[in-house]
Write the structure tokens for this entry.
Amino acid sequence: MTEDRVRLALERLRGIDWADDTAAYEHANSRGLLMREYLRRMAAWARAYDVEASWPFLDVVELVAPEVEVPADVAVEVEDALKGVAPSSLKETCRAVVRWAALVQAGFEAPAELPAEPYEPMLLMCERGGGYFVEEFIDLNGAMVRLGTVDSNLAAQPFLTLASTTLDALDAEGDITYYAKVSEGYPRSSPRGIVRRRVDEEQTYDEAFTRNLRWEPTEYLRRYELGHNDVDHVEISTAEAARFIESAVARLSGTG
């Protein structure tokens, strides 16, 4: 039996607690990353269809197959699920999520040069703490994301690791810097491990992502600063850290 993607999208919208401020703050880091990835994916679609003036909250189906509609009964349920949701761009994007599901269910495949799941980062972001408000920045109630331009978002580093375990591992308080431990045979793209330094309320916390698949305290960075470590390290981006975490989870949990 063919999966009912339209119903699945509807149920995911129904499951969102739009007023969960606690989750929004707990997942502030990952929500910010997911919103940035949504902006990047939408920038690619906007550029491809010459609708940059309408970016970033687009109904992609209107661009590629405007004849595709959501079944009338589902459309009514979508509106019921979105009662009270604001701003209007968020409500319109949620409708577009369901319409995209109808398009894919009808057999559509995105061109190879465009993101295949343009709305998934936005939907995941909402599931991790609700929606947003747009002012000078996009306010995610715990994180602020600069809107930027189509060009700046197209130039952004893709954030493709959307597994919940990875997103959870990126959520922590404070200013965070990630490092990859590198040596011969262990380049930046495949390091021996990763560590992070968090600075929160003038306190510094050094942590390593361990074989226990969680962050645990480490003395590595302090020992390195004192000249006691043979293993070198380089600063890496959050996206690079996410790829390592996802790979480690898959390898050590037997799912990879």
Summary: The first strand starts at residue 133 and ends at 134. Strands lie at 133-134, 137-139, 144-146, 175-182, 193-200, 203-209, 215-217, 232-236. The chain is about 45% helix and 15% strand.
